[in-house]
Amino acid sequence: MTALSTPDGPAVDQQVDVVLIGAGASGLSCVIEAAGRGARVTVIDAAPSFGGTASGAAGGTCIAGSPLQDRLGVEDSVGLALEDWITWGGDSVDVEWAHRYLLASRDVFFDHLSALGVRWISIHPHEGNRVPRWHRPEGGGKRVMSLLAHHARALPNITWRFGYRAQELVRSGGRITAVIAMNGDRIVEISAPAIVMATGGFNNSAELVAMHAKQAAGAERVLLGGGPEAKGEGIRMLEAVGAQFTELDSVWMYPYGTPDYLKPGTDRGLAVRGVDGELWINDEGNRFHDESLRGGASGTGALLAQTEGRAWSVFDAGVASGLILADPYYLDGNKINRDRVAEFLRSSPYVESAPSAAALAARIGVDRRNLEAAINDMNKAIAAGLHRDPAFGKPLDGIAPLDEAPFYAVRLHPLARKNLGGVRTDLDCRVLDSEGRPIDGLFASGEVAGMAGGHINGHAALEGTAFGPSVFSGIVAGRAVVE
Ligand SMILES: Cc1cc2nc3c(=O)[nH]c(=O)nc-3n(C[C@H](O)[C@H](O)[C@H](O)COP(=O)(O)OP(=O)(O)OC[C@H]3O[C@@H](n4cnc5c(N)ncnc54)[C@H](O)[C@@H]3O)c2cc1C
């Protein structure tokens, strides 16, 4: 009997071919494949609607050798991308999954998703990539997810159960046979020969982030930046049936999180962007890094090496006019809501402002001479026409001096965003137990499985390697459950 059973046990509500838990990027990709091949699928999602994390994401995708790269004259190949991937992610990269993903990336994302209406509009460079291969979709992840959802909705044989929170996997006769879910007080049990876990990561769980993000153990605070339902519930259910996990401590964090002051009493963070002219200043009032290297490996490593693993982003009024807070509250459609950004600068207790650098130093409690020297040195380098700052090598082309009052300081902490590790699976997304044997009837794809297989990225992600591989492993799982 399960922990949730009434004395008579929960009613077996439904018997289908596949139960999919989680209708995010990976789950929707999975259901399209499985239902498209004729399987009867029930989709359970705790949220009121489709989309999961990707609905609030850029949806930037690592694609090697795309038509857009060809058009823009970027010479790329699967081999080059795989070399970068392995160099960046280290010895824990799952090379087989990474290779399969890169080989499929052009077909899946250009041919398959473009046929559904996705348009790739630009490519951008990111650390670790020798050529630009991060592709931006028009309308971001939100539009991609609504196109996937539109397509999935049109397929027959799918029952959608939004607002149902999966609680427990049921094991019977050595295999996983059902899932128990709750909708308010209502308990349902849905049985199927194949159950796919696509519940995402845990970067909206302070408890799990504190438990696993060991690299940030010395930091004063780690902010949460995962999707709203990224609470790690899938991991708990998988643990309960003896699944094997890998690289759970590879929590991909960005160095530019500031507390979301509109959610007091929580650890939710906002990503601070659009401030190319900023200086990162530590508790001693000194710069410590090339601020253009803002990635999870370089920027976060530098931040965590500072006292309390925190810093200030210091800039002037000119830079402030470009500030972006990556959160729907600060957007009107695709436009920045400047009034709300101004309100943040005025009202957040994690922002200080002052008419001069000296006064700002006093407000944030750092050494005045150090802060003034950091700003003056940068301004001198810009005035001298240098292309890089002599201290840390920050590229200076297009950067203006910091000389327009008021001056601002925004508190920065690491922002936990993506799980690079998760449950281990084989190449068909079958969940493995502690001995490495498939657990019959159980599959996992997307971020709960470290995007694919358990740890496709290794210790570091090239960017665009969360959304893309989550979609890809969802497709693989959708085929596997039918085949
Ligand atoms: C702000 C932000 C920006 C990002 N930008 C990028 C980017 O540009 N490029 C990139 O590669 N990656 C990016 N990512 C990461 C990427 O979006 C995710 O890794 C990816 O979308 C994960 O997809 P998923 O389907 O595995 O999980 P999710 O999208 O998180 O979906 C999981 C689903 O499971 C449901 N669920 C969870 N628990 C339960 C339960 N107990 N019962 C029922 N349902 C449940 C959730 O409601 C959700 O719908 C970003 C992430 C964030 C937070």
Describe this structure in words.
With 483 residues, this protein is an alpha+beta fold. The protein folds into two domains: 12-244 and 420-482, FAD/NAD(P)-binding domain, CATH 3.50.50.60; 253-416, Alpha-Beta Complex (Flavocytochrome C3, Chain A, domain 1). Helix content is 29%, strand content 24%. The protein contains 13 helices and 25 strands. The protein has helices spanning 25-36, 67-71, 78-89, 95-115, 140-153, 206-212, 233-240, 298-304, 317-320, 338-347, 357-364, 368-383, 467-482, and strands spanning 12-15, 18-21, 41-45, 61-62, 120-124, 134-137, 158-162, 165-172, 175-183, 186-191, 194-197, 223-224, 245-246, 251-259, 269-273, 279-281, 311-315, 324-325, 331-332, 335-336, 351-354, 407-419, 422-423, 430-432, 438-444. The strands form six sheets. Strands 12, 14, 15, 16, 17, 18, 21 and 22 form an eight-stranded mixed sheet that branches. Strands 7-3-2-11-25-24 form a six-stranded mixed sheet, with helices on one face. α11 (357-364) crosses α12 (368-383). The protein is globular. The chain starts with 11 loop residues before the first strand and ends with a helix. Bound molecules: flavin-adenine dinucleotide (FAD).
